[in-house]
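[Automated response] Your request has been received and processed.

Submitted sequence:
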Amino acid sequence: MLLSKAAWRAYNTYRKGARYPSELAHTTELLNGTRETLAAFQKVRLEQLIQHAYQTTPYYRELLKTGSVSMSEIPPLEKQDIREHLARLCSEAFTPEQRIKNATGGSTGTPLTFYQDRNYWNQRNLSVYYFDRWAGWDLGEPQLIIWGAPADLRGDAHWKHRLNTFWRNQYWLDGFHLTDETMHAAFEKMNRWNPGTILAYPSSLYQFAKFVYENGLKPRWSLKGIISSAEMLHQHYRNLAETVFDVKVFNRYGGREVGLIAMECAEGRMHINCRDLYLEIDSPDPYRHPGDILVTHLNNYAMPFIRYRIGDIGVFSDEMCPCGNALPILANLFGRSTATFRTRTGTLIHGGYFTQQFYNVQGVNQFQLVQETLDRCVLKLVINEQWREATRHHLVQKIQEALGADVVIEVAFVDAIPLPASGKREFTISRVTGVS
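Generated structure:
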């Protein structure tokens, strides 16, 4: 563990320069500060960001007409705005080589491409380090990660992943393809390795906890906490995990576009990451009536996200948390969830596996994959002029690689995919019993 701690510190110092220890200290000081200090910090950063966006991006230069505007005067940034004006949203102060391309399937089931910069990632990592310590994690301590798809890596990418998990002191259980064999092997490894924390997709955590419970296994680990992220943490997921592993689950809320948005403290309140983000609720009364969450990212200067409608619904709380931290609180979050698919062999496939197949796919505006039976799925697609028949074959092949080569994938081209009553589009749905 001492070797891993040294490697973590060397890695971060290399990535952020000699300032890394002081930057982490400044991060901690700010996020432990008063609400007045946080508000003053955000005011300055917002003014700087708006000026930068107006001066260096064609989109905001035309939209704002001036660099001195209040937040309420700026129209929300919609996902469709990003699709239609991606190049014009990029800052002219960054060369194409300085932009880091990223993409997400999105909670609406619509692929979305965007850009970030190196400073965004450096600052994001510092905030993650701060908040994950609430769950007991620290640099170099052993951690079980139940996440996505390392088994799919090949060649250099496979060895790079193995090297990274070694020096980070992590054990990676592929949350996209859970089998009794892999879960039992991970359980036995943890009994020998004694991880301090778990980081997991909520649905994958639930399936692992269910396996442990149903097989009468008794963990001998001394967990400090469990961090759940990337999906909605349903109450029955939390209840089972906390019962089986006898430790608190800390919910972490974020998005690929904007990083860590908020994290749950020991008292169960969801605190907002005011260092990286300015959050609004699009509601006449954001403390009583839920509304769309609007995110302004304070660090991504390569492609400013100002009042970005991320696709989730929330409501603020005006209370001061009993934990003593002054960061503002999201009182409730109505967010995304993905389905877990099951194969005939009993393997559980995380819905995020299918979403990943649509990252950067040309020709698809919206998608929805429905597992009707173990032998049949329906893939609904809203396509555009960039669609090619080769794309169809590629998508069907990737789905069959996970579910089985003889599973029938019916592709249905539709004009639109209606929203469910909840208002939140479900992009993967399993109707096979025994999954939940």
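Summary generated for your ticket: Residues 206 and 236 are 8 Å apart (CA to CA). The chain has two domains: 1-104+114-337, 340-430.
If you did not submit this request, please reply to this message.
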